[in-house]
């Protein structure tokens, strides 16, 4: 036993005595489900964000029960924990610098002070650039041409200064607000040839002259150019050389809806951006019950749920209340699924002698960051995927209203609908069937590997991704019904004499990152949100889709599409909004360090 194993096992038993001593009924009960959810969604666990102490406490809680019920560990070094790393945050490195040189600068040269005068943005590209300084208004170029700061401005090879927000101010409902995000502005600047980007908050928008907080965006890891936030006190004297003040510029643009742009005459800027990515470790928790049938015991069924949530929320967390930093309890999302999976593990543990196939109980971390844990699992399976006959997933099963239960993946094996109907003969549920195997949870990673899936979900609600998703709002009796239903279905899959055949569905293509529901076109891929590369790394290629037909594979990195440089997922998403079904686009992808060229015909999203 190595030191890591010793440490992991020691971790396992560091639970509060009240939790260790809790005795649960062997059968599936609403009371036991409530016990699990009340702990997992408690203030003590702080929202269970991946890589946080609360997430680790949840993992130890799960592992403690798996150990108590006699499940074999399938994690690293004989433990229940399958560790993986992800980029959790960013920090300023020691090399950040901003130098302004020219006659208008007091003394001719100004070396700004990091974190006092300026700070890199969290998605800034690292490196050093030098160029003439240009004021580019709000840095907005509306797609309908109603407002364009770049219409009469050449920024190629230059460093631009832009105001935060839009001519509508900080109004979230303004007509230009959708063009005002940091990501869109830096991409717009880069695409027009700017080599550097400086953001300043105008006096009309903020009384305090503050810098933008350094934070990491999982989807937008690299802007393609160095990008800074700068205090306006540093730039106001330079802007004044043109006869303007920032306040006057803002007032004029708001009143006239007409851009004000100009070169900052005689001033050259040099930017050095040094942003360090902070890597954090989290873990899936995996337990195993072996099968006993000589002909079937080498096959396994994976039962899954994700254990992570959004932590304290805040900007960039995925919270739908991002202006509120508070515990996002995640009782339904997904303490409910985690509790359900614990109940299944206990129930099946009591009848292990009768199991024909093996059952894998996989509690995934990193789902809220882009199904990172399940992606890691399918690429590092503790039991070869060729032996996995199906995957059953539970995510948000705690808010059953009436009798409606949504089941994704019903088209991924021809026998699924009959199986679902067999155990719903009493019409306990009104089943809403979604044939597609792709969907907003961990099962999509398995479907992408040609494994039949079923995903159970009781529906969205107003507490989704908000601090108000608390334990007292769970329908415990309803969840007991759902878990007992899944238990019966999984039991039959385990004992069925033949392996369920896999079928590919003709349902709508998967979401490709962000809010893509309004996009008309698709490549039929899922991005790898933990790619950690320049470009957009592909996690899953949907069989038969445009990417598959073009020869793309999981692991490829798209670096150019339709003649546009692709640095991150946002670059890709912007193109989706401009293309239509039938358009043929040239792609450049990196595979094993080599550039490959191909052409794909875009498909219409159904």
Description of the structure:
This protein has 14 helices and 25 strands. The chain is α/β, with parallel strands linked by helices and about 600 residues long. The chain has three domains: about 5-85 and about 280-495, Aminopeptidase (3-Layer(aba) Sandwich); about 95-275, 3-Layer(bba) Sandwich (Glucose Oxidase, domain 1); about 520-605, PDZ domain (Pdz3 Domain, Roll), CATH 2.30.42.10. Strands 1, 2, 11, 12, 13, 14, 15, 16 and 17 form a nine-stranded mixed beta sheet that branches. An eight-stranded mixed beta sheet has the order 4-3-10-6-7-8-9-5. β15 (about 405-410), α10 (about 415-420) and β16 (about 430-435) form a beta-alpha-beta unit. α3 (about 30-40) packs across α12 and α8 packs across α12. The longest helix has 20 residues, at about 475-495.
